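Notes continue from the previous slide.

Worked example: a multi-chain complex. Inputs as given:
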Amino acid sequence: MKNNSIQHSAYTLQLRALLSKFVGSCLLFAVSCLLLACAPKKESPLPIYGERDLAGADTVYHTIGDFKFVDQDSATVTNDTYKNKIYVTDFFFTSCRTICPIMKTQMLRLYDSIENDPDVLLLSHTIDPEYDTVALLHDFANRLGVKSSKWHFVTGDKEEIYKIAQTSYFATALEDKSEPDGFIHSGAFLLIDRQKRIRGKYDGTKEEDVNRLLKDIRRLKKENGTI
Amino acid sequence: MEQSNFVKLPATSHKLQEVHRQLVICSLKLVAFFCLLACTSKSSETSSPKFQQYFIQGEQLYLQHCSNCHQKNGRGLGLIYPPLDTSDYMQNNVTDVLCLIRNGKSGEVIVNGKNFNQKMPGITTLSDLEIAEIATYIFNSWSHKQGLLEVREVSKILLSCDSLAKKID
């Protein structure tokens, strides 16, 4: 009988030790969860790309230059179209069979996530304006099933498109007959803020990079106090 | 105290062992069940080494030549690039599909009742065997279960579409 009670107490001691270990690890887990949850609040703001100058005491950042193109509805698209909006832009052409279809699949995913968000718009420039006419872009956008008020597909003067790609967006867009499709271009998506500044650069052919872009759009909106 | 500890411990570890044993048996049963499920759904042809060779090689070629537009998951893109995962066009036009891989296709195509009209360039560098491998892959992926498309059969079809193309020219 006595032996039994000793056994019993030894058993409960073991149980207690186990229990306290369990509670301890639970607490540790909870604390780390809390820390993780709090961390994004302290995240640093998104970088601002490009050269910067000092004008007196103010820093002047690189901004997107003026542009004037025509979209799939023959409507004129300028900087004013994107005034006070966050937008994502890229360079492509409809007959491209290399990276563009993957980029467009990813951009469509982006479109689905911001379709009902009035703060965010999309802008796709064709780098093959001779082939990609307004009618062709209209058909292309229709076949993707997207609204022109949300996603403008623009065409215009070829030199102007190449110039804005290189000098404003730091994206590569060149005609090169030796390339399989006749053009060299990057698959980059660029995130532009309300002040026309570049805040992010992403590989539009990589799903993970576009996931990062989706997160960064939210960060940018937080910065502007819109969420 | 120490002695009693020794007495008690084996008893609890026995219980643990029993639980562990049952867990192992249970998971083994589960694995066996899935194996059975996987085996029964495959016909004898699709498990043959030849089929496997065609299929695996075909997948690599698909990723290299086709998936940019038709996507890795075969779903295509909007009404621009037609889907392959479920496609009445593929089911009803095997010959045409083989020919268009080599010679390309332009003009309207109706797939699952929807109109597509994007020019597809032919891939002239592919050999008959490579086209047979791609065809074996796409005709046995997603919703398709056509079985092996052997190079001998495929070559015959490709010859007929080559002559068709020449007649049109």
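Summary box: The longest strand of chain A covers residues 86-92. The domain at 52-223 of chain A is CATH 3.40.30.10 (Glutaredoxin).
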